[in-house]
Amino acid sequence: MMPSDFFFPHTVENDPAQHSKMTEIMASGVKGFYRGSDIIDERRIDPAYGAVDAYELMAPIIDTDKAMHWLMDLVESKGAHFVTETITRDLVDLEDSLLARFDADVIVNCTGLQGEVLAGDDTVYPIRGGLIRVINDGTDFPKVDAALTITADAAGSANEIVFLVPRNDNILLIGGIAEPHEWELNLTLESPIIRRMRERCERFLPGLKDARVDPDYPFAQGLRPFRGKNVRVERELRRTGSRIVHSYGQGGAGWSLSFGCAQDVAMLVEEALSGAPARPMAEMTNDWKIPKRERRRW
Ligand SMILES: Cc1cc2nc3c(=O)[nH]c(=O)nc-3n(C[C@H](O)[C@H](O)[C@H](O)COP(=O)(O)OP(=O)(O)OC[C@H]3O[C@@H](n4cnc5c(N)ncnc54)[C@H](O)[C@@H]3O)c2cc1C
Fold first, then answer.
1. Best of 118, 179, 250 to mutate for ligand 1, by most ligand atoms within 8 A of CB?
2. Per-residue pLDDT averaged across 178-182, rounded?
3. Calpha distance 163→6 (Å, rounded)
């Protein structure tokens, strides 16, 4: 767990949306909640950037490269056999042959942006992001040991924000940007939007002017797999009796949502195996709030 600090260019009460969010966070009993503008000085934020209010809470930080290895090992230890292959058609057309070929009971589709091809979903689109990785061992600037962000209105644009996240190793991630419908992963440290990102973060936290990029891995970029309406965790509806379960479109929150989505996928797999008819996700909202043992069974 790591302190995560949120800064605001106005007192939180003056922004109804932020105030409602903070009230909800406080009521949730989240660990380590603290509200106070003294966090601005404590974290060495330049007041000239415009922060006047702040709060902090404890949040888990996932080093995703480590987590991916851990997940792979976990799945393998449960008997999974990995096959690497690209599927180029809609899963509805391939369902019977894939189930037969792998002697499988169910297909779970977690292919992110490829939901367009594999699930016939033309609402899927990317939001490109990029992060600069700098050495955060305390030698070049005072070690940053809290995640720091300021609301988008203070940063000047909803798509070009200040987002600083120390990993659990000695790397600080400097972000962030959001570029809808950009498919190419061709950003570099010299791209204008990335230079602006760095300059913005240096104005926010002046110590970063002395930061050194990680020579082994200076810059990371990726496509957040978004979807028109929302995340899709739903059984296939186009084919009666289908045993396909979809889970894609988690956008910029795939790690945060992974725990809940995985639970819902497990429930939908059970349903599919029981022979219950598939229902649209929208119709399931209320059921999903009911503890599993009390849910209606088919
Ligand atoms: C800069 C950036 C910052 C982010 N920060 C956060 C954050 O702070 N917190 C958070 O929760 N999330 C964050 N995210 C979002 C998170 O990384 C994504 O939501 C998540 O990775 C999506 O996972 P996924 O498995 O659904 O899709 P993907 O990671 O896209 O995986 C899809 C998988 O399907 C496979 N696949 C695709 N097409 C096919 C095909 N045709 N045949 C066979 N296999 C196929 C791919 O090989 C891949 O393994 C961030 C993303 C970016 C880019």
1. 250
2. 97
3. 10
- Geometric angle at alpha carbon 253, from 190 and 265, rounded to 5°: 140
Structure tokens at 87: 């599927």
What ipTM is given for this predicted complex? 0.98
Determine the distance separating the centroid of ligand 1 and the alpha carbon of 215, expressed in angstroms: 25
Q: Where are the domains of the chain?
A: 2-60+125-226, 65-120+231-294
What type of residue sits at position 272?
Answer: A
Q: d(Cα 49, Cα 199) in Å, to the nearest integer?
A: 12
| Paired tokens of 79 | 């008997």
Ligand 1 centre distance from Cα of residue 170 (Å): 24
CA quadruple 149, 214, 143, 70: dihedral sign? positive
Confidence of residue 267 (pLDDT cuts 50, 70, 90): very high
pLDDT at 237: 97
CATH superfamily of domain region 65-120+231-294: NAD(P)-binding Rossmann-like Domain (3.40.50.720)
